[in-house]
Amino acid sequence: MRFRVTLLSLICIGVSGCSPEEIVEPSAPIYEIDLQETWIPLPDGVRLAADLFVPKGGEEGERFPVLLEYLPYRKAEYRGRNYALYSYFVRRGYIVAFVDIRGTGNSEGRLIAYEYTDLENDDGEVVIDWLSKQDFSNGNVGMFGVSWGGFNSIHLAMRNPPALKAIIAVDATDDLYQDDVHFMDGIIHVDSWEMSQDLDNARPGAPDYAIDEAYFRDRFDTQPWMMTYKRQQRYGPFWERTTLKERYDSIRVPTFVIGGWYDGYRDSVPRMLEHLEAPVKAMIGPWSHGFPHDASPKPQLEWRHEAVRWYDYWLKGRNTGILDEPRFAVFIRRWHPPGPVLEEVDGQWRWEEGWPIERIRERTLYPQSNHSLANNAPKRDTHQLRYVASVGVEAGGPVMWWGDAAHDQRPTDAFSLVYDTEPLDEDVEILGFPHAILQVSANAPHANWFVRLSDVAPDGTVTQVAGAGFNGAHRESAKNPQPLEPGEAFELEIEMHFTSWIFPKGHRMRFAVNNAQWPMFWPTPYPMTTTLRLGEKKATKLVIPVVPPGEWPKPNVLPPVEDPQLPGFETLDAGNVSGYGEISSIDRNPQTRTTTVKATNATGTRYPWGTERFEETITHETNDDHPEATSVLGTYRTTVELEDRTLRWESEMSFRSDRENFYYSYTRRLLKDGLLIREKNWEDTIPRDHQ
Question: If phi over 0 gives left and psi between -120 and 50 gives alpha, with beta otherwise, what is residue 400?
């Protein structure tokens, strides 16, 4: 407590009305909103385009803290979203800046070479410094964002620029290799986002959509990011440059992390809560990938109330009492039926002092010869499983990233080794990272393993609770993968992704093991059989983090407020709930042993300058007899209808494999009023590096 008072006393120096001993209400909504555009100059002469949402109606010459969201997602088109989102902060005395990253949206310069480059972060430091020195600023800058905005909040906090005083990272990660969309769990993944983003990167800024030689040079003709990422198949320097997980002590900026149980980036919430040395708060709730006030499923909450309390403390020197509360607000999930449609999650909020939680106790369960799951290790036995590459659609589709509400697991379980407990004689709550310790072997030089923990209801429905994959070639190191020795047994410890769940009395726990989870993970190339070894000495086992019953304090969470809307921005078709291609059909051909999965999405938006429509179709195909012959084809189209012309950007991305290589093919087109004016193609052969 002495540290808190002393630190706040330092913050209060020069801040009018600040009293470190007095707890005050967060800033009140007393301002109106003014939208301004500006340019931020960089040392090399490039200018970044920024929208400033400024409090209006205060005292003349009043200065405000600045909150920064720094993204490649096109400020002009995001303006309607931003006006609604930022209004909460602006009305409470914060300027919010949305800045287009170099070479994106309305910013100048050549498109950055890939995500989170050093150049992007160098520019970010300049932006923070510039914002802190303007006449409207009190000198203190905060960052926030969901996904990319959360990632670069973390990355810039690792650099600790002097004016950056606090961040809030929503649905972000401390490990871009294991947790992000390119190589989840160390296994190659081809994602809807990474395909569609390559087309979005090729568009000029709205509303002018200037099509000239500089545009073609700096955007349309630049190499697709996916070509870079699919060559980075093992962990190494490319990933280490932004990996907070290996240097938590690099952040000295106060950090608030927010995650969702149906988002793939949730593992970072407890890890950062445990390991950051800077002041840290955390929250995890029942949401997928989005800000908690408008994310799905419900219940939503007004996270911006907590954000204002956080920023008031660090950027205004107002003691809102936020550091006197427990550090971790967590929503504990109760049973719900399987997805994919999930409107609301049953459960309850509670406070925890931090992570790890001392009262949690590990419980070990052992797969038995009769496929039960029990407290004692069995006698020695082996269970074999034939690898079926097309298995796993139900456990997580192309965009689920171990998030979203997975389908009923019974179809995947039918092709897995499955072990069930007896019906539970009382409710059992878990919170944390379940672990699977497997004694395994394969009769091929490469295999992946996937483990899942599920809830089996009395009516037979199976709801996925947790899971994870493991690249067998990474059993010793993801930096130096090694092939398997066929038939040689070894141990794998697989940490499942962060979860909470209350298994009701009368339900069963299910532990499932298999070797494919397609199309979320790319299949390994060899037909094979894997073996799971049971036994007393080196036992295959499941370790679950059990929370003992009890009553615990609850945070006072507030429902979302209604946001004002900016005229001229109208959603015509919101598309899928996830915002990405979602499975629309599954075709299994028993004669050819091939399976085809199609995912689609379509959106439409009206802007003051015209109408934009986006369409995507993703077709995944694999062959159970020849898993090396796997492919994905993504087709994307963005059409912008303006008063004087219609522009259409198209792309086709083909990614396929054999045993030795991946084959990448990409075509990008621009059409004006239906006539082709530019087309560019890329081809690449990428050796498989233990993938």
Answer: alpha
Inter-CA distances, 178 with 93, 209, 497, Å: 39, 37, 11
396 pLDDT band (50/70/90 cuts)? low
- Rounded distance between C-alpha atoms, residue 587 and residue 42, angstroms: 52
The answer for residues whose C-beta is within 8 angstroms of residue 662's C-beta and 6 or more apart is: 188, 230, 655, 656, 685, 686, 687, 688, 691
Q: What is the mean pLDDT of residues 555-568?
A: 96
Question: The pTM is what?
Answer: 0.95
Closest to 50 (Cα-Cα) out of 64, 31, 69, 27: 69
Q: Rg (Cα) of the chain, in Å, rounded? A: 26
- The angle at the Cα of 493, spanning 487 to 499, to the nearest 5 degrees, equals 140
pLDDT at 7 over 50: no
Nearest-angstrom CA–CA distance, 553 and 306:
17
- Cβ contact 646:639 at 8 Å: yes
How large is the average pLDDT for residues 119-127? Answer: 98
Q: Enter the tokens of residue 672.
A: 């004006």
Residue with tokens 């939208």: 35
Which one, of 255, 63, 86, 35, lies nearest residue 140 by Cα? Answer: 63
Locus of tokens 């709550």: 429
Q: Across 300-380, where does the E strand assignment appear?
A: 328-333, 347-352, 361-367, 373-374
Structure-block tokens of residue 630: 């796997």
For residue 526, what are the CA distances in angstroms to 364, 388, 451, 469, 625?
Answer: 33, 10, 20, 18, 9
pLDDT at 579: 78
